[in-house]
Write a structure and sequence with these properties.
The structure holds 2 protein chains of 2 kinds.
Chain A lengths: L8 E4 L5 E6 L11 E6 L6 E4 L13 E6 L2 E6 L8 E8 L5 E3 L3 E5 L1
Parallel strand pairs in A: 1-9
Antiparallel strand pairs in A: 2-6, 3-4, 3-7, 5-6, 7-8, 7-9
Chain B lengths: L2 E5 L2 E3 L5 E8 L8 E6 L5 E7 L6 E3 L7 E6 L4 E6 L8 E7 L6 E2 L3 E5 L2
Parallel strand pairs in B: 2-11
Antiparallel strand pairs in B: 1-3, 3-8, 4-5, 4-9, 5-6, 7-8, 9-10, 9-11
The chains are: A mainly beta, B mainly beta.
Chain lengths: ~110, ~120
């Protein structure tokens, strides 16, 4: 049950794109299409942004997109806006009824 | 609308016990897998436990196995987390979350502080 690896920080200017990686193993990210991404503002509960690698819940802007290649999943935020400044977490099903989170990435809008 | 409301957090001494509750409303509770996820102060999220619809399957992160027990009462639309033998590294905000392979709704969290 080792945590998935995310970069601690990422940044971009308004209107630009930022991509956050989430690296696991063939036992979690690479083994299942059950990667999801969450946005968490300070003092708030996390909010689901992407599920099943690339699906967006209703109400989530299409500026947020997800993908996966091998053992690495990615979240791309296009057209960065000030309100996108937040912490972002990935999680993956890891088999045998267990889940694992990434360490989180703090996105700064410059 | 879907609501999840945690309660039961507080300050507890190491080695003692605490039971958290999560009251669910706005959806058919018995039809959903439920999770507990925690976040230590200033740290990232950590999956803690899962319970299936009718409680026939449960699982835990290794660090709480044998100490924590997840349960549910579908007649009361309530999820529980019994935490025994608490340690300092259990200090965290505990969130209940709805979902199967992902967590589509979260509660606001309840803070558990383990300290002498």
């Amino acid at each position: 049950q080792s945590a998935l690896t995310q970069p601690p920080s990422a940044s971009g200017s308004p209107g630009q794109s930022v991509t956050i990686s989430c690296t696991g193993t063939s036992s979690d990210v690479g083994g299942y299409n059950y990667v999801s991404w969450y946005q968490q503002h300070p003092g708030k509960a996390p909010k689901l942004l992407i599920y099943d690698v690339s699906k967006r819940p209703s109400g989530v802007p299409d500026r947020f997109s997800g993908s996966k290649s091998g053992n690495t999943a990615s979240l791309t935020v296009s057209g960065l806006q000030a309100e996108d400044e937040s912490d972002y977490y990935c999680t993956s099903y890891a088999g045998s009824n267990s889940w694992v989170f990434g360490g989180g990435t703090k996105v700064t809008v410059l | 609308q879907v609501q999840l409301v945690e309660s039961g957090g507080g300050v507890v001494q190491p080695g003692r016990s605490l039971r958290l509750s999560c009251a669910a409303s706005g959806f058919t509770f018995s039809s959903y897998v439920m999770h507990w996820v925690r976040q230590a102060p200033g740290k990232g999220l950590e999956w803690v436990a899962v319970i299936w619809y009718d409680a026939n399957k449960k699982n835990y992160v290794d660090s709480v196995k044998g100490r924590f027990t997840i349960s549910r009462d579908n007649s009361k639309n309530t999820l529980y987390l019994q935490m025994n033998s608490l340690r300092g590294d259990d200090t965290a905000i505990y969130y209940c979350a709805r979902g199967g392979f992902n967590y589509d709704y979260w509660g606001q969290g309840t803070l558990v502080t383990v300290s002498s």
